Amino acid sequence: MSEEKPKLIREDGLRHDGRRPDELRPIRMEVGVLKNADGSALVEFGKTKVIAAVYGPREVLPKHISLPDRAIIRCRYHMAPFSTMDRKSPAPSRREIELSKVIREALEAAIFTELYPRTSIDVFIEVLQADGGTRTAGLTAASLALADAGIPMRDLVAAVAVGKVDGVIVLDIDEVEDEFGEADMPVGIMPSLGKVVLLQLNGVLTPEEFKEAFELAKKGIEEIYRMQKEALAKKYLEYPST
Questions:
Q1: Tell me, what's the pLDDT at 166?
Q2: Strand duo 72-79 + 195-199: pairing
Q3: 54: closest CA among 66, 43, 40, 41?
Q4: Which one, of 94, 17, 93, lies nearest residue 48 by Cα?
Q5: Under a CB-based contact definition with an 8 Å cutoff, are residues 193 and 153 in contact?
Q6: Averaged pLDDT for residues 109-127
Q7: Measured between alpha carbons, how far is 187 from 92 in angstroms, rounded to an integer?
Q8: Three-state DSSP class for 194?
């Protein structure tokens, strides 16, 4: 990598984009954005834009993969070819396959799959524009889309990535901070239950830094969780009979 590392923390203590270390990017959420899906959601974290669609519960095809005691969750995380600066191949990469699995496992912890044996619930996550934090934005959007589809869940899942840049623990890292920072840690939680469903760490943190980063993630997730509930309330208060 030949690109020179930019200064990520300015002299005044703010980040390269003017945010405080504990500040989220501007976030927008909307549910029911696709009329042909059972549930859908659009989530934006700054310049990162992700859309999620949910279908099901529905008959499993092929039938031999169905489970007698619960629904199977199938999840596809995909980055659109136009989502990055350089055109990306539309074929799924190893990273996308891995993240599909990670997000599916996080959602499985939240969904009452035992209510729908021999069925499938299909989740499609499409990254429209990538600027860091796509997996956590995708997980947040998928959780909203599941709720929009009426899938019974233990709780919504809210997620955010924290990181370490120029020696400072920061909330909701963007692409520049992800590329040039020392560590990034995506976290997903069911807030009302206090249950962690996603926790990954790329890079190195001391035990003290890990604790600080996790507490910062929890703080950000509480705010994201509030926005999720507001997005759902906005749709269903506007359309109470649907």
A1: 95
A2: unpaired
A3: 40
A4: 17
A5: no
A6: 97
A7: 23
A8: coil
What values do phi and psi take at 181, rounded to 5?
-80, 175
Residue among 76, 125, 114 nearest 98 (CA): 76
The rounded percent of the chain whose pLDDT value lies above 70 is 97
Using CB atoms within 10 Å of the CB of residue 234, give its burial: 0 to 12 exposed, 13 to 18 middle, 19+ buried.
Answer: middle
Burial class (CB in 10 A: 0-12, 13-18, 19+), 49: buried
194: buried, middle or exposed (CB in 10 Å: 19+, 13-18, 0-12)?
exposed
Gyration radius of the chain's alpha carbons: 18
Helix 134-148 vs helix 207-238: crossing angle, to nearest 10: 30
